[in-house]
Amino acid sequence: MSLANNAGPFLLREEIVQGTGLNLRVLHISDIHFAPSHKNKAGFLRELAQLKPDLVVNTGDNLGHSQAINPLLQALEPLLEFPGVFVNGSNDYSSPKLTNPLRYLMGPSKVESRARDLDTPRMLREFENAGWLNLNNQTGQLRIKDQVIDFVGVDDPHLNLDKTPKIQSSNLIAVAHAPYLRVLDSFADLSAKMIFAGHTHGGQICLPGSRALVTNCDLPTKQAQGLSKYKDSWLHVSAGLGANIYTPVRVFCPPSATLLTIS
Ligand SMILES: [Fe+2]
To answer: Where is the Calcineurin-like phosphoesterase domain (predicted)?
Structure first.
């Protein structure tokens, strides 16, 4: 599927998931790391609404600049018309700081006590006012195409904020920013049919063929992006749409969003 003009370097990937019993077209966006200067990215995000997804899953790290919230909301405005769910990443709380561009190759980034200098409550409020479900350590439910779908999510595991709620459902979708194995285990224990996550940037600095060297967490590199199985659940990890504005380097790993056709 192709989108109209203004897509810049951003890719739309497509995945097919079968055997879940669900019937959904899900647009998965993640790691936007938005800054006011990101005109092409804003255009790409707005054009994604042409896909008319049944559900938007946003796995966090929306913000990449202290002045990003207003232009981010403008860029997401068309997608906020669709049912959606979201969780936070660390960059939804704190503005970016200067880091070594090769940090991604030096193992998981440290959990730091960065100041929470962003107006995160306002961003969450705008998402919620549009009808998106806030899944930060919460559960929720949506009726989509005559299906009742339950959701469970956690606040950012990279900041150790995750606390998986208990929920029993035969139609469960689970959402987290950083796909740490402890979180994936907790979702698999709840028999989630699908798990969505971001955070890895697909490895960000990859070998040819998008082969990741790191995941910035304890997820194996072969699962750094795309679709895989985690125990009995399907796992989709987005390669994301951005990076820290001070390290805007992505090698063999273009920024992307993914449309998943789930049946
Ligand atoms: Fe990120």
So the answer is: 24-202
